[in-house]
Amino acid sequence: MLEKTFTPAEMEARLYAQWEARGFFKPGHKPKAEPFTIVIPPPNVTGSLHMGHALNNTIQDILVRFARMRGRDVLWQPGTDHAGIATQMVVERLLLKENKTDRRSMGREAFLKRVWAWKEESGGTISRQLRRLGASCDWSRERFTMDEGLSKAVLKVFVQLYKEGLIYKDKRLVNWDPKLLTAISDLEVVQKEVKGNLWHLRYPIEGTDEFIVVATTRPETMLGDSAVAVHRENEKLKHLIGKFVRLPLVGRLIPIVGDDYADPEKGTGAVKITPAHDFNDFEVGKRHDLKQINVLDQFGKMLLAGNADFLEASDVPAETMALHGLDRFEARKRIVEMFEAQGLLDKIEPHTYQVPHGDRSDVVIEPWLTEQWYVNAAELAKPAIAAVERGETSFVPKNWEKTYFEWMRNIQPWCISRQLWWGHQIPAWYYFNKDKIDLTAFNNVLESGRLIDMSQFGVSVAESEEEALKEIATQFPGKELRIVEHERQAIGLIQESRGQILGVWRDEDVLDTWFSSALWPFSTLGWPEETPELKRHYKTDVLVTGFDIIFFWVARMMMMGLHFMQEVPFHTVYIHALVRDEKGQKMSKSKGNVIDPLELIDAYGADALRFTLAAMAAQGRDIKLAKARVEGYRNFGTKLWNAARFAEMNGVAHDPNYDPLAARVTVNRWIAGETARTEAKVRQALDEYKFNEAAGALYQFVWNVFCDWYLELIKPILTGADEAAKAETRATTAWVMDQILLLLHPFMPFVTEELWQQTGTRKQWLIVSGWPVYKGLGDAAADAEMEWAIRFISEVRSVRAEMNVPAGAKIACVLVSANSETRRRADAWENEIMRLARLSSITFEEQVPKASAQIVLDEATVALPLEGVIDFAAEKARLAKELEKIAKDTAAIDGRLNNPGFAAKAPPEVLEESRERKAELEARKVKVDEALARLG
Question: What is the mean pLDDT of residues 624-633?
């Protein structure tokens, strides 16, 4: 006996534990079946479930459960990412709070032990939360990007790419975080709007009394200028190309170069070029072979003393050298003061602009010239571009392929090194080249705080320390090799042993987290070992992810998969949209509009949240999520539960031998056909990744067709005297309920499984039951009959509502000019129509009675005499007043939308809300016009 109240909390935890314990999530149950594989986008081990995770994993679970029911051998591979910088920061904050210490005081080995301990204690939070969502991953195969197997894969890939010349060291600009002291990826940079200044600086043109004016938001970087650029077609300035300026405060002569980067319409038309401190300037510098002069250290302080590049070819004034060691922002103030004192400050303009900040440190990021490890991404991108061009991998929606191609065809070298401790330590071992070593100069570099010029070192890249030492030993026969922690110890060894002991130390840096993530589709399956899982489940089927990591993750998985597996990692990439708040604004803690999915699950159940997200997941359209929507779909689950209770109370029971093709009662033949049509819609929509259409078809069928119509229409049969019709209807109802549970299971797994278990004796659990396949269902005559009856009732109900007919009033109905078929149908369905449309009678006439609302029903007219039921004059006045308000509100919206200022400045979500409101008003106007027309 079903409980009266549907309570998700107890049911969800119990069912999930039973599914997992019975091994339903594991592949291998159908060894001869076609495999279906999805790798989960590994959430950060530091993370907890947010709404983006909820959407992403709901979509994956729908696909996985759908494939499992269709007979595929399913593997949904779970795991988490070690999240280098995020995890390191979490543990460092803990250390500071608990022990008042930091990682450098602890030392690398002790710190890493503490991080691993934290991971074991707290790193499983998000995996537990995904279980609450209903994610049917094979948790027995859960991987971690730093577990032993994946670490082995990372080492092999790094070494192989290095030996192939596709990994190398280079000195280039990176996003440098001067607080965390590491390079960071573009994804870890957030742009913040800042109200600052645009300083216009006058640079003297050598050999003349003229000046060229450049504008900058970062005056402190001018000490590193190596050119001024103007556009070749700038009529006012192009005559200066080839001349030189004397750089103020420094005295260095720098050229004026012609380059398209300088926009004649922007600023002064001249641009200062600082290749070591600006990404665009770096590219200009390469085109013109300009010197790269770094004037900041890793802490964001001025680096002038001992800086050979800065001091070369100029006698820098003492006042400028006094800036050495100043913080960059303090130096900015001083430099502006010095320009003003020398009469070289042209003007200052207030300027609002975007400034890059570290997403975790919240400090201004510095484009900084430093030596790092890089991947030759351009070379690896070529086959990845070609694979998408050939259709081996497709994007859904397809427009994201354009984004993929744009990124890939303009790809830059990928900086893969990070100055952190938590992560995959780079497998490179250094030693001094004995012919190049200059210990005095080297010690000076160490003391200055600059990053070291690695040209004095030899390097061995190998999968293990043993292999590295073996390789180095061949170059230094007779020398003792000794592992040391860093270069300082190596210097000490050389000095103490008079060159007889060679210190070897490992690169301290770790790899970018995205490097190990790029191997995820094959490393999680056991590569580099040739495992049965790798052979069976690679390539995978679908990748479900957000658009923001197409470049950072999707593209890199494509590159690595093709290079190491000679095959794309997946045939389809489904890109889902963002989940925003109900007003269309992006969720953020600062706005206070973040919706916690776990709170929604606590309040409404996982099924309600899952169905909400699926129902709103239209391709290419962001989701505007409101709690009311989740509550509404919770009510949908309750509606299904109550339908099952109604069936149970009316003697409906699962009949494994029931054949819907044998049904004789019209309403039963009709509902069987509706069931088959719904299955076809759901199947096609899921095959096309149109999750909202699949959910919409199910909602329409369950709530409207089955609950609102079928169950209402069969009530007289269930209480009637025709036992054969009653038995057939009970069996049909049970069969349709079963089909609903099967079709709805991928979306709402918990309530469907619970009802499956409680409404009959089953051979197997719903989660592993087969997806329904129908043949021969659908009866055109029954469909036409039921469609007519439902349309009749619906039209009468609609008119009653439009005309403000009291809900309890039963009204007469006259069918005018009805043919014989309509008369037959009206007679056959008279009781159902009168009961459900609240009619007192149905009669047939040739003329429309006066004061009647009229409905066209095929060849006939349905007339509803309303004299004495409603006040016609008052009703006309009410509807006319509503039309006036609609016109006024529509005009106001048009005024806003047609205002260029509003359209240009209003946030996109406000514009969209205005357009939606206008569409609602226009639809309502049609209804009110129809109601007025009916009143005559």
Answer: 93
